[in-house]
């Protein structure tokens, strides 16, 4: 729940960052939190969190409602599959994985745009910012994964402390 | 049985979410074609994001504003004198024109026409930009509570900026002319050549026009034609900077530099009139739009 709320807050604030910095340099926070969720939460929880983050991204951007959410569902599945083979808790493997996943996300978005709106030109005007954003996602991925892990562990510690207090009270 | 349910729970959730998001996309495309997303399910989120983005950008806006005010003060005295002289000159011109109109008996007729054509302009602040490089849209701090509806054109003091595509109680999202899905019927002011201005996804626009008989040159002003019903006639779009000619092609393309500086959008105005459909923008087959209904009241 904390991860979802933090992710939603970050997605909502992302537009403001895009007003201050070039859009292509601001990482896709929805994608990064969805990846963190896939690595830290159970499969069903991770899917639900990813869909909600995707829907909020869609509502706040010019995308069709469901466009990012559709891709996030697939990306969670990919992350869990790869995460079971490679240790994605370490920074470098995670950065490389997010680089590849962001490329998949960009291609998926282009495909969905072509399918539903018939309007995507894969010229330099489209590819340049996408490449920058893919790089930015990869650079920021370890940072956001660490933030998400700290949040999840903080919540776990709190729950454990409360449980201990309850047990003492029972004695 | 419970073992089977447990085993298929996750694949079923995965497939269910994929199908649900696909259905949402199909539904949303239809909603956008019919006139944009008013009263959408994410209205609350849009409003919340607008407030949050205002808070996030406030310190940067304050610093930029303070710096700009300081810079302005340095030149304000000289500018003031020039402007005062210019106002006097314009007032004189205005007076002469009024005299001429009264003399020709047209003033009353023009006053009646103004009532038909004048559109209320609602000032609005840009509080956030689109976070996806695929799309070019902005978040505005005015929404349904200010009678802003999807389909209303958005302008700045320099010309046409785009169109409102989604609204919530206190916020709205507007698609810029630069967006790839954006299209506006346009004419070249000098030669009256007609074409369609499209967003290229980059910082410039494309004017697609017919070759035969059409005279388009660098330096020409491009304005909206009013055809299609989404944008009113006569709004400045930009200036032709290059014409790409290919003898074999029936349609030619001109590169248009927008008159609006999309990188520095701060204050915009929502024109409170709307078309009945946004099909022209979203690739629908019919671009025929009837006369606009009067602006709705909140």
Structure, described:
- The complex is a heterodimer of chains A (171) and B (298).
- Chain A is built from six helices and no strands.
- With 171 residues, chain A is mostly helical.
- Chain A is globular, with a radius of gyration of 17 Å.
- Chain A starts with a helix and ends with a helix.
- The model of chain A has no long low-confidence stretch (mean pLDDT 83).
- Chain B folds into two domains: 35-177 and 262-274, Thrombin, subunit H (Beta Barrel), CATH 2.40.10.340; 183-259, Beta Barrel (Thrombin, subunit H), CATH 2.40.10.
- Chain B is 36% helix and 25% strand.
- Chain B contains three helices and twelve strands.
- In chain B, the strands form two sheets. In chain B, strands 1-2-5-4-3-12 form a six-stranded antiparallel beta barrel. Chain B has a six-stranded antiparallel barrel with strand order 6-7-8-11-10-9.
- The radius of gyration of chain B is 23 Å and the shape is globular.
- Chains A and B meet through helix 1, helix 3, helix 4, helix 5 and helix 6 of A and helix 1, helix 2 and strand 1 of B.
Topology of this protein?
The complex is a heterodimer of chains A (171) and B (298).
Chain A: H1 2-20, H2 29-40, H3 43-60, H4 67-83, H5 91-116, H6 124-170
Helix pairs in contact in A: 1-2, 1-3, 2-3, 2-4, 2-6, 3-4, 4-5, 5-6
Chain B: H1 2-35, H2 43-104, H3 107-117, E1 121-129, E2 137-140, E3 153-156, E4 159-167, E5 172-176, E6 183-188, E7 194-199, E8 205-210, E9 221-224, E10 236-244, E11 251-258, E12 267-271
Antiparallel strand pairs in B: 1-2, 1-12, 2-5, 3-4, 3-12, 4-5, 6-7, 6-9, 7-8, 8-11, 9-10, 10-11
